[in-house]
Amino acid sequence: MEKMKNRPIPIPEEAQEVIFDTWDNGTKKNAQYFLDGQLIGSRSWEESGQLSLEQGLQGNQRHGLFRTWYENGQLNEVQWYENGKEHGTSEQYDEQGNLIGTYTMVHGTGVDLWFAAPGVLAEERHYLDGERHGYERWWRGNNQTIGEESHFWHGTEHGIFRLWNKAGRLRRGYPRYFVDGKRVNKREYERACRKDPTLPPFKIEDNAPERPLPEEVKELAQSRG
Length: 225
Known about the structure:
Elements: E1 16-22, E2 28-35, E3 38-45, E4 51-58, E5 61-69, E6 75-82, E7 85-86, E8 88-93, E9 99-105, E10 110-117, E11 120-128, E12 131-139, E13 146-153, E14 156-157, E15 159-163, E16 176-179, E17 182-184, H1 186-193, H2 215-222
Antiparallel strand pairs: 1-2, 2-3, 3-4, 4-5, 5-6, 6-7, 6-8, 8-9, 10-11, 11-12, 12-13, 13-14, 13-15, 15-16, 16-17
């Protein structure tokens, strides 16, 4: 927590606050901030008055510091943006204020991670230039199985989507197949795979939820293990 003290806040004190939503008890819920007529940030609060979200804005895009808090007032996450794209090292904390995970994005490119505990992943998303690009997985407690897996190409659904129940069985209607954002049947997908190397091939073993952590993701996760 100490390292946050010397970092810039996204909203200077001289900014004009415009409250546009309140809780039933009259406390602030959402507000925007303006400097020289330009929108430069926003904040949100819990009904208790605890600040829950603060972000810098530029041209209606995230720019600068973004952070959220737990209801108990502890810092939850810290991210950095440039012109709407995540850029810098993100930090995630638990409700006791302990740092449990980090990842780094470069102008919207990298692997966005969310941790359930130190070294234990909950979510993994691959990005390129601010768009989902590659796999997105929702991990279960031991980092050896997943509950959901999808694949994107430049922000578009492009691959096989799978969803499992808690017993590890595919939910009804899965796998689902997408090519350039269009849902297709399995035969159409396999035909497209033969011509398009950006499509992950269908493998029957992938219908099971067991997955090894990708090496680049494992290295990031274990850095806080």
